[in-house]
Each structure stands twice: as C-alpha cells, then as structure tokens.
Write a structure and sequence with these properties.
Blueprint: H1 3-10, E1 17-20, H2 26-36, H3 40-43, E2 44-45, H4 50-57, E3 64-66, H5 72-82, E4 88-90, E5 93-95, E6 101-106, H6 107-117
Parallel strand pairs: 1-6, 2-3, 3-6
Antiparallel strand pairs: 4-5
Helix pairs in contact: 4-5
Length: 118
C-alpha cells in the first residue's frame, strides 16, 4: 500500500513486521521485492541510526527495510517518526517521511528484545 495514500485516508501508516525462525525467508522476501523495483542495494540495511533511517525515508518513496532488529528503542523511534508522517526538525533541516519501513526479526531475538524492553 502506498505510504501517502495511507496517510491521506487513514492518518497513519503502520510498519509491517516479518517475524519467523532463522532461515524462513524474511530477508529474502524483502530483497526480492526491492529487486523487482531496482532498489535492493539502497533500501535494505542493518545497523543504521534512527537519524540515518529517517533521512532515507524522507528522500525516497520506496519502502525501507530494517533487517534483523537488534535495538528495540531505535526501532520504536523509527516507527514513531514514520507512522503518522510526522515532520522532524533537526539542525540539518526539516525532514518529512515519504515512506515507512518494513521490519524483519528472528522469533527468538524479538522475544528477547521485548522481554528486555519491559
């Protein structure tokens, strides 16, 4: 679903989360989707800061895939900044997201992150 359409019609755009055991194809599915639109190298990343991810989401309308969650606090911040099209003002300028992100996580890792988060 298109990010701007969701914002205009529903005032929000949730981030899909692909969860499953290691080796079940979560990352591969994301890579295939991005490859179909010629964006694999630009839009699939691990270990980006929230600011870098938000910067990316403000420059492209292609979804960004945050692969293999490892920091629930950063992911929460990223989702909060893209969920409702929130404008972010920084010393570098004003960023307005043009897309959201898709997240992937291994079941065991996600459960560990969530238990640590509480």
């Amino acid at each position: 679903m298109h990010y701007q359409y969701c914002l205009e019609n529903f005032q929000q755009c949730p981030s899909p989360l692909a969860v499953g055991p290691k080796g079940t194809g979560k990352t591969t599915a994301g890579k295939v989707f991005l490859a179909l639109v010629g964006q694999e190298e630009k839009n699939l990343a691990r270990k980006l800061t929230v600011a870098e991810a938000i910067s990316h989401c403000s420059k492209s309308s292609f979804p960004y895939i945050y692969d293999d969650l490892d920091d629930i606090t950063e992911v929460k911040s990223l989702i909060n900044n893209t969920f409702n099209g929130q404008v972010r003002i920084t010393t570098r300028g004003t960023w307005s997201p043009k897309t959201g992100c898709m997240l992937t996580a291994n079941t065991e890792r996600l459960l560990a992150l969530l238990s640590d988060f509480q």
